[in-house]
Amino acid sequence: MATLTINGKQVDIDVDASTPLLWALREQLGLTGTKYSCGIGICGSCAVHVNGEAVRSCVIPVSTLKATDEITTIEGLSADGSHPLQRAWAELDVPQCGYCQPGIIMTAAALLKRNPDPSDADIDAHVTNICRCGTYNRVRRGIHLAVDLNKREKSS
Amino acid sequence: MTRERVNISRREFLIHCSALGAGFSLGLYVPFNSQADEAASSQTTEVNAWVVIEPDDTVIIRIARSEMGQGTLTGLAQLVAEELECDWSRVRTEYPTPGQSLVRGRIWGSFATGGSQGIRGSHQYVRKGGAVAREMLIEAAAEVWGVAKDQCSAENSIITHKPTGRTTSYGKVAAAAAELIPPFEVVLKDPKDWKIIGKPVKRLDTVDKLNGKQVFGADLQLPGMLNAAIEACPTFGGRLKSFDNTSVGKMPGVRKIVRVGDNAVAVVADSWWQAKTALDALPITWDKGPHASVNSASIEQMLDDGLTATRVFVGNRNGDIDKVLKGAVKTVEATYTYPYQNHATMEPMNATALWTRDRCEVWCPTQNGENAHEAATEAAGLPPDKCEVYKIHLGGGFGRRGAFHDYVTQAVLIAKQMPGTPIKLLWSREEDMLHGHYHPITKARMVGGLDDKGNLMGLHMRISGQSIRASINPRRKNRMDKFVFQCLLPDGDHAISYTVPNLLIDHAMRNPPVPPGYWRGVNINQNAIYMESFIDELAHAAGQDPLVFRRKLMTHHPKSLAVLNAVAKNAGWGKPAPRGVYRGLAVCKAFASYVAACAEVAVDDKGILKIHRIVAATDPGHAVNPQQIEAQVEGSFVYGLSALLYGECTIKDGGVEQQNFNSYPSMLIRDMPKVDVIIMPSGGFWGGIGEPTIAVAAPAVLNAIFAATGKRIRRFPLKHADLRPS
User: Fold this and answer.
1) Second-level CATH architecture of B43-209
2) pLDDT digit string (tens) for B320-330?
3) Residues B196 and B82 sit within 8 Å (Cβ to Cβ)
């Protein structure tokens, strides 16, 4: 049994303590937006936020998380798809198959939280997710567009 | 007949899966064997097989091909909508099922989604489907009004009686239209009148991919479902001898441990993580079979033997190559080697199956619903009409999920051992890496002869290696497979881009016991590397500019020449590049489209390669959705360059060595060059989009590397090459 705080709500889940967060999210809580792909923390398809930082949930055992840790998944990034990244992604039709996109969006969202106007070099360093369809150039444009959307809203 | 509706909507039931925090519920429609008619669906009208219209003017367009990221869903909907004259903003799509197709005499044609065929293989009949529905809707309105049909027209889902200006909408007349006899013949629009085809409309499937709602096969949840993890013998051709379930059978959540076919074992548990954990602990004994000593070196020996073999299959020949090579002023010779590749779809193989004694249902990502249905039927041991397959959007396909449905077979074989319980089988990444249908392995020996003016007088290309089609159909082991000559044939969709006065391209089939499969671009990947690198070698041997040298061979290939000229001009070929930056060219015709690329790269003192920019041109005949073509061109560079830079499956002890993304890396965003896409549709034909560009990705970069370093790389991937200046 573990108590976690996910998308602002505290939940009790009945899993072995060694279960990775990814599988607790997907199988105990039905939050399947967070994807399994490599299982060894390399590809980033399973990225979620823990206290605002992007982490690879496939290699984080539930036992290492505290009830006070704020976990956010793609389902909780915004209530209505209105996060600047989600709007930018829709505007540019970024996804192809879409499987890796929740992980990429969550990774980029954490980057923007820390660095509201990242350079291309910042994006290169921070976004290390694998996308086999090859959406990278639109991902980059999408991050820059999200920054613009943010700026426009703040100035208006 | 037109009243007969496909009960797709009635076969849906809603599963609620409460999502935390955001406060919305995840509503997942899953087609299921519900015989009960649901009142809600009785409002929709099937006008014909392709078009369903709801009273509120929502238009549902049926798509038989699969969406795996390539944008086919949207492109095909554009084709139908163009002729239907419907309101694009009200268009939705749905997949018909292979079972329904069987009942209705394959009314939707082929479900196959490969070979860049989605649009070019069905544009005619899907447009006709839209046009027929339009005519029926107009006729229905005319009948209601008691006016002549030819006085009415349709636009944006509104039908207008021109003399009076009276209007009605598709939703209002759809039911009446469905009663009518479809027109025998319809005239399709002239391309110059297209309003939706050719426009960069947004994809229809983006929104759910941004918020976690898009359900992939791996995400499927059914009531009472259990989860299975599987391990097959890591040696090709090996078998499962035994497993010891005494302790593992008692592990948390474990329900059953089952033998799957003759080579695999699966653990079924409440959750997949429990199943996987138990499987990892399961003592298994394998019979490694006859190929346990096969390794990369022994496979290369087989291929080397083919390079000089005399029993070969000729793919393209003209002139007298032997005579010309003997008399050549200068001959150039080179051997190239291309490794096995895995598809490495981000979503590993998976399928969910529910088996009872009189019915089998499967939910799966598939590039070919009909093939999946066949696999399910065979494994289920039931007649085809007792089986159904429900397609789910794919988390990547790239050819892995089209001809091979081993994962469907396995899911059904497991479900058969637990009748009445839905079983979701999900492969681990490791299983996915070890049990692929790999990009075939080949080598090529190239010999070219130049005359005293540096003109190419003769070219012999000997390919040695694997045939996918011989692997699929062992009766084909007659050593003839034309498919290996993609982009090298005398004519057709995969015609060679050059005219060489004396030419011989032949293939020595060598089939190692590693299962080969279709792959994004398949044989154009290596064939274009061989041809385009070697043409560059010949140009340099002739002391000529690679663009000038190519142009001389392309006078009979105007469309190929046009794309090549376009990239050269746009990239500034012949003009100085930025300091330290070097350019390379490649051109190819594949899947009926003409493509070219000019790559700009730099290689530093340490031999580190930086690909700065690629200019790419595509002539696909008709360009259905330019912004999606751009996405596919960019994506082709990622897939093709990932293979060039990193992709390699090596064989040891009869199995694949690379088990995950740590040993099978892909390009990341930091490796990605700027891509300038030139779309130059010349009209009059329908070429593919998803794959052709992959042909020019690698050779353009390789030729630029040669320009930068003087090093000609002939063995891949590049991660093994020392690019430091010599």
Assistant:
1) 2-Layer Sandwich (3.30)
2) 999 999 999 99
3) yes
